[in-house]
Amino acid sequence: MASSLAIAVLLGAPVLATNARTPTPQMGWNTYNTYSCTPNEDIVKENAQALVDTGLADLGYLYVTPDCGWNMPGRDSDGRQQWNNETFPSGGKALGEYIHSLGLKFGMYSGGGYYQCGSSDQPASLGYEEIDAAAYDEWGADSLKYDNCYCTSPYVMAEYDDPISGSPERFRTMAAALDTVDRDILYQICQWGVGTDIGEWAPELGTSWRISNDIYDAWRSIWRIANQAAPYAALDQTGIGRHADMDMLVVGLGALSHEEEKFHFGMWSILKSPLIIGCAIVELPDTSFDILSNEDVIALNQDSLGDSAKLIRRDTENEWDVWAGDLSGRRKVVGVANWRDGSQTISLDLSDIGVSSAMARDVWAAEDIGRLSGTTDVELAGHELKLYVLSNIMTAGDYLDSTGYYAAANASLAGGAVVTSCGSGECLPVGSKLSYLGGSDDGTATFSSLKFTSSGTKTIGFDFINYDVALATAWDWGSNSRNVTLAVNGGTATRWALPLSGGDWYQTGRMELVVEGFVAGDNNTVVVAGHGDYYAVDLVGIETFE
Ligand code: GAL
């Protein structure tokens, strides 16, 4: 990259690998969600022009990327990929210059396999990384989306289980090739979250990394991808210049209701996903334009702290979540998500996010709503994500104290539940977990002798592991969540749908569950079980608070 190269030459040192990163999530437009693998030059030029004409470019949507389908079979005599000369009569450098002339940035697309996704003869970059990186440099590329098809053989497009598909190696090779060219090229890893621990290796290589299989134009995709995104922020793997990519937006495609489009855009914004528009800008409905151009929501995404909102509370029986994150200027964003089809009013407890009171702005309503303190009723339409920005925050002084930790391995087990011991640093904090809770063998764990000084609803720190990743099931009903139920003192079981916890089946995640039915004394019991015949999450332990 230009700057590091210059410094290295001056110092006479070897050129060290660097990354071209944008500190805040990338914003732009990509052909795939509307034009699949059949983009052409007119489509790209018209939509690029429309980004400028509509003012979206001024709001930050700058990167224009022709996705799969831009190249033709074979390589030229220099071994370079070739633009399809029928659909992209100029392509390459001329297209790059055109996009730059509009004040936009030019995105390239390739992959670390034999062929591009969606084709069986258009070469991707495996084995040609340096040649291709040099070509992208010459064509004036500003970013590279690097996909994961045909990584094991020229015959299988998508592999979810093969270790090669989950390995960082091919992505590392292209990162190194990009570092040899004299141009800043932002690297978008599109590995889909295959294998394990992508949140550990991908942020070192690229500005963004896809955490999920493709978004599908249906509401259920939003739930699936939100559950898949949860661990990256919880594990602090995201931040400035490192963004978990929740995939391109389906706003404007007619797949979601207006409320759902706001939910989707708001959730992607507060989780600091790249915001890549996937609809035709030339046919963008006004209502969708209003969403994509909402400057206050965009500002949440582009906030300089780069802090992705985390899942703070989930009430599965009533189908709502609270997500929250820090913003610059000692502010916070709170997203209250209603997964329910119908409207409902929920009680938001600010102390859950460490706040006793704060000035609040309802972002979508564009209204300052004054000072909120303690608990607040929030009215939500079906599938609404209410976004609040909190400022002038008074922090909560009344923190809960831990009153005990109960390792799941010491609970009394029934049905198919078994204790699994884990390696060092795994299944924290106790180094073991229960597997096979729930399922058709009805695995259960009973904790007894839980102590509380008063009766009522308590916060339970629930240390669980879920790495049931929805890849092959992504367009179907795969949700990245697993159910667990808790029954307190013989009462009715209450269900929670928990998201992924980390990067494999040994990385613990914690959810604080607000659980009813405890009594004063030292003899409370909690039975943890599954729901239906499905396996529950694995369980490490529970911590009680009062
Ligand atoms: C997928 C990728 C999509 C799109 C598609 C093209 O692998 O995740 O974003 O690029 O390939 O066929």
From TrEMBL:
<dbReference type="GO" id="GO:0005975">
    <property type="term" value="P:carbohydrate metabolic process"/>
</dbReference>
<keyword id="KW-0326">Glycosidase</keyword>
<comment type="similarity">
    <text>Belongs to the glycosyl hydrolase 27 family.</text>
</comment>
<keyword id="KW-0732">Signal</keyword>
<protein>
    <recommendedName>
        <fullName>Alpha-galactosidase</fullName>
        <ecNumber>3.2.1.22</ecNumber>
    </recommendedName>
</protein>
<dbReference type="InterPro" id="IPR017853">
    <property type="entry name" value="GH"/>
</dbReference>
<dbReference type="InterPro" id="IPR002241">
    <property type="entry name" value="Glyco_hydro_27"/>
</dbReference>
<dbReference type="Pfam" id="PF16499">
    <property type="entry name" value="Melibiase_2"/>
</dbReference>
<dbReference type="Pfam" id="PF17801">
    <property type="entry name" value="Melibiase_C"/>
</dbReference>
<dbReference type="InterPro" id="IPR013780">
    <property type="entry name" value="Glyco_hydro_b"/>
</dbReference>
<feature type="domain" description="Alpha galactosidase C-terminal">
    <location>
        <begin position="318"/>
        <end position="390"/>
    </location>
</feature>
<keyword id="KW-1015">Disulfide bond</keyword>
<dbReference type="InterPro" id="IPR013785">
    <property type="entry name" value="Aldolase_TIM"/>
</dbReference>
<feature type="signal peptide">
    <location>
        <begin position="1"/>
        <end position="20"/>
    </location>
</feature>
<dbReference type="GO" id="GO:0004557">
    <property type="term" value="F:alpha-galactosidase activity"/>
</dbReference>
<dbReference type="InterPro" id="IPR041233">
    <property type="entry name" value="Melibiase_C"/>
</dbReference>
<keyword id="KW-0378">Hydrolase</keyword>
